[in-house]
């Protein structure tokens, strides 16, 4: 009995490890693509360090809004955002035009900003997740 | 030894900083302005460009791809607008009526276009006539190539000079090492056309083999302000630098404005692009901004409508969200003032045929500056 179960345990263990490593590799690749999107479309306002511009462009680094409003953040990138929003206790009232990114680019840039500058997210943004977000 | 190195180093810094302009980089707050800002057209998202028609109405572009006709206090959406490539900084951009609009009816529009075989887009210039609420007789006059999916630097301001030539700016499309210094490629240039889109015979590069002959000047980064000086008739531009180094230049035929070989700016990351700020054969700006204000739109005040403003330049600041007034002493900036503080991202500013100043603000709309009595 023990002998029969043992290989199964090993097998499950291996599958588990592969999928964890697989996901990490996926995340890393997505973040690399996301960094390119970020440097093209986002950096002029949110800046390289993700800190934004005080009272004008909200920070992404250590941002409570980004951490707590995953779907709204995706929606903002996908369809644009206008009006008041509170980030880390500061009220911003500005316009971010929709950038014209496709869903996979939005997933990549979300993975980049969710996992940079001390930010950390325990689940990966997929293209499907972005596709499901409606206006 | 350490001390002497320090001394040499600090005196070098002092030497270099004393060569550069410095007082101009202070912007002054103003308590009394000779105007009140009145929101004339409300509920706009990104009003990118505007122009005035002889009947007192206005045409305003929305970057997302709409044109609004504002007449007698009512907004009408215009039909027949070109399909735009709305990605990053691209979309429906500037609009300008021909100086003899009442005779020929031509309206010029710049926009990001997907026309062509490659994926992506690049800046295009078209003209059309307004018939009722529709654009008709549309003609594409120029389309920059190649297309790219990069989101930056479409340029796109349109202005006419006193001889009826049309000037158009096109930014370097996020490819600074390839485009701005190469006159056989589009991007990072200011172009000059005849009003029908043909190329003037005396454009500076018409005899250069392989050159894009519409080019008038090159070595630009992303000019989003073009204006005609009311007295000299020269075309002036302002353009975004990277981090620091936004510039005002006087546009001269065949001149090279240096990007990215010389610049007063640095990369967004803080790393240097080059340590050179001047070079023989490359133009120095009239003014550069440190830090960047992210300038967009440009207008000269040509009348006495606003007390003390005649002869100064107005520029929108996208980054710091105010309207800047630059007081000139000849071709030098003598003083800078912050008008309309915290109004929002100022995208465009124009002097109307009525001598009043109109200011396009993102998330708000078009403000009219009503002079104090």
TrEMBL record, chain A:
Is Heme set as a keyword in this record? yes
Q: What PROSITE patterns does the database record attribute to this sequence? A: CYTC (PS51007)
Domain Cytochrome c per the UniProt entry, residue ranges: 29-117
Q: Which InterPro entries match?
A: Cyt_c-like_dom, Cyt_c-like_dom_sf, Cytochrome_c-type_DH
Q: Report the transmembrane regions from the record.
A: none
Look up keyword Heme and say if it applies. Answer: yes
Q: Which PANTHER family match?
A: ALCOHOL DEHYDROGENASE CYTOCHROME C SUBUNIT, BLL4482 PROTEIN-RELATED
Q: This protein is called what?
A: C-type cytochrome
Source organism per entry reads Euzebyella saccharophila
TrEMBL record, chain B:
Q: What is a single molecular function from GO for this protein?
A: oxidoreductase activity
Q: Which UniProt keywords apply?
A: Oxidoreductase, Signal
Enzyme Commission code? 1.1.5.-
**InterPro entries per the record?**
6-blade_b-propeller_TolB-like (IPR011042), Glc/Sorbosone_DH (IPR012938), Quinoprot_gluc/sorb_DH_b-prop (IPR011041)
Give the residue range of the signal peptide: 1-20
Q: Which residues form the Glucose/Sorbosone dehydrogenase domain?
A: 45-363
* Pfam family membership, one: GSDH
Q: Which protein are we looking at? A: PQQ-dependent sugar dehydrogenase
Q: Which organism is it from?
A: Euzebyella saccharophila
Q: What is the lineage of its organism?
A: Bacteria, Pseudomonadati, Bacteroidota, Flavobacteriia, Flavobacteriales
């Amino acid at each position: 009995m023990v002998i029969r179960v043992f290989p199964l345990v090993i097998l499950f263990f291996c599958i588990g490890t592969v999928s964890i490593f697989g996901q990490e590799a996926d995340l890393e690749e997505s973040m690399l693509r996301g960094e390119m999107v970020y440097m093209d479309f986002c950096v002029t306002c949110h800046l390289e360090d993700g800190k934004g511009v005080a009272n004008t462009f909200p920070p992404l680094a250590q941002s409570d809004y980004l951490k707590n409003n995953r779907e709204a953040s995706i929606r903002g990138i996908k369809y644009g955002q206008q009006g008041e929003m509170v980030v880390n206790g500061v009220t911003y009232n500005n316009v971010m035009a929709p950038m014209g990114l496709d869903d996979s680019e939005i997933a990549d840039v979300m993975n980049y900003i969710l996992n940079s500058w001390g930010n950390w997210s325990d689940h990966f943004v997929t293209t499907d997740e972005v596709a499901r977000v409606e206006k | 030894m350490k001390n002497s190195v320090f001394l040499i180093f600090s005196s070098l810094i002092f030497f270099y900083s004393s060569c550069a302009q410095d007082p101009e980089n202070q912007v002054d707050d103003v308590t009394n302005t000779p105007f009140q800002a009145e929101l004339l057209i409300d509920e706009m998202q990104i009003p990118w460009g505007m122009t005035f028609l002889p009947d007192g109405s206005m045409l305003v572009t929305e970057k997302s791809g709409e044109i609004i006709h504002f007449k007698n206090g009512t907004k009408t959406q215009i039909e027949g607008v070109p399909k735009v490539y709305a990605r990053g900084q691209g979309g429906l951009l500037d609009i300008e009526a021909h100086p003899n609009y009442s005779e020929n009816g031509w309206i010029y529009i710049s926009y990001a276009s997907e026309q062509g075989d490659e994926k992506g887009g690049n800046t295009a210039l078209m003209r059309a006539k307004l018939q009722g609420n529709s654009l008709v007789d549309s003609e594409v006059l120029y389309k920059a190539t190649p297309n790219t999916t990069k989101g930056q630097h479409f340029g796109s301001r349109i202005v006419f000079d006193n001889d009826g030539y049309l000037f158009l700016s096109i930014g370097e499309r996020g490819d600074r090492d390839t485009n701005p210094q190469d006159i056989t490629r589009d991007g990072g240039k200011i172009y000059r056309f005849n009003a029908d889109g043909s190329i003037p015979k005396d454009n500076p590069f018409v005899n250069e083999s392989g050159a894009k002959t519409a080019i008038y000047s090159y070595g630009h980064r992303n000019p989003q302000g073009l204006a005609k000086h009311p007295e000299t008739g020269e075309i002036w531009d302002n353009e975004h630098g990277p981090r620091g180094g936004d510039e005002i230049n006087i546009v001269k035929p065949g001149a090279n404005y240096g990007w990215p070989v010389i610049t007063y700016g640095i990369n967004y990351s803080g790393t240097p692009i080059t340590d050179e700020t001047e070079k023989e054969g490359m133009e120095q700006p009239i003014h550069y901004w440190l830090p960047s204000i992210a300038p967009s739109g440009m207008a000269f005040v040509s009348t006495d409508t606003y007390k003390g403003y005649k002869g100064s330049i107005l520029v929108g600041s996208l980054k710091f969200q105010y309207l800047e007034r630059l007081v000139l002493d000849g071709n030098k900036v003598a003083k800078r003032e912050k008008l309309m503080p915290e109004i929002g991202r100022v995208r465009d500013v124009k002097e109307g045929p009525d001598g009043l100043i109109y200011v396009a603000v993102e998330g708000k709309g078009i403000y009219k500056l009503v002079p104090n009595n």
